[in-house]
Design goal:
Elements (H helix, E strand, L loop, with lengths): L3 E8 L6 H9 L17 E6 L3 E7 L10 H16 L2 E6 L9 H8 L4 E5 L7 H14 L4 E4 L8 H11 L17 H16 L9 E9 L3 E10 L2 H8 L4 H18 L2 E10 L7 H6 L5
Helix pairs in contact: 6-8
Length: 293
């Protein structure tokens, strides 16, 4: 039997559930999940391999319609690269959300690869709304296969996976069979910390923050990690630290507990907070933070 392999790229607007779907399809928590927009900032690949197939799922940042910073422009570039190398598209929407006739949608429909349109969060709607929405999308994208799902409850995820398997092109494996992702351990550590910042802080603070891992040393019984949280302005540093350091301590504890589950061993986590003015508009700093990869 011929070997099948391909890139399955997930695209949609912020908050549509792309990261939840990615984690459900891969069977591991690779993408961080919060209710805030722009949770995903980078393109993250999750690799599922069998004896006769390999699926490379790709979670991209949500489409930023009106980029306010150079960071947003770079996030949109990840979507462009995902469009270019896709063998199958998973285009995600949900009840109440309508794609405008924007550039991304046009590029997806013109890419000439199989397109699965996934209507997510059907558990929060009703049959009449979903049926009408499916009809509207069928008129708009007649070549797309439309599948209603609930990524959160893993409803119809198996059906999506089965259809992907049928549509995969014949190719040799792109990655080693035991590889789970294209990202490093340091990347996932920084994402875990950023997830806790998104959960613990309000307003602009989570969006003004970037996390760097300065040191990652794995010993036999413990992993020692030193990290830095960068903010854009001095007052934000005080908010991240909190009164008597209570806020950063809470964030650090939550992150460390998740890391210990992720790595399966004890973690010692040290966090420093520094100011890097206007980093979201500084191309050199953005490159250092990994936004040109």
């Amino acid at each position: 039997m011929p070997h099948k392999a391909g890139f399955v790229n997930i695209i949609g607007y912020p908050n549509v559930g792309k990261s939840t779907l990615m984690n459900a399809l891969v069977g591991e928590k690779l993408s961080i999940i919060t209710s805030k927009a722009q949770t995903t900032r980078h393109r993250i690949m999750g690799i599922v391999s069998g004896e006769e197939y390999q699926i490379i799922f790709s979670d991209t940042p949500g489409i930023v319609r009106d980029p306010a910073y150079k960071m947003h422009e770079m996030m949109n570039k990840y979507i462009d690269s995902a469009i270019q190398d896709a063998d199958i598209f998973l285009l995600m929407t949900e009840p109440g959300l309508n794609f405008s006739e924007d550039t991304v949608l046009n590029k997806v429909t013109k890419a000439n690869v199989p397109l699965l349109l996934l209507i997510n969060k059907i558990d929060l709607s009703n049959q009449e709304v979903i049926t009408k929405l499916m009809e509207q999308w069928h008129e708009k994208l007649p070549s797309a296969e439309i599948i209603p799902i609930s990524a959160q409850n893993e409803f119809n995820i198996e059906a999506v996976m089965q259809r992907i398997m049928e549509l995969l092109p014949e190719n040799p494996a792109y990655f080693e069979k035991d590889e789970l992702t294209n990202r490093t351990e340091r990347f996932f550590v920084s994402e875990i910390i950023r997830e806790k910042i998104l959960l613990n802080y309000k307003k602009e603070i989570p969006y003004s923050v970037e996390v760097m891992i300065d040191s990652f040393k794995e010993l036999e019984n413990i992993i020692n990690i030193q990290s830095t949280i960068f903010v854009e302005r001095e007052p934000q540093k005080g908010i991240i630290l909190g009164h008597q350091g209570k806020a950063i301590k809470k964030t650090g504890t939550m992150a460390r507990e998740d890391m210990e589950v992720f790595f399966g061993k004890k973690v010692f986590l040290q966090i420093t907070v520094k100011v890097k003015k206007d980093w979201r508009n500084n191309e050199i700093t953005l490159s250092r933070f990994g936004y040109d990869h």
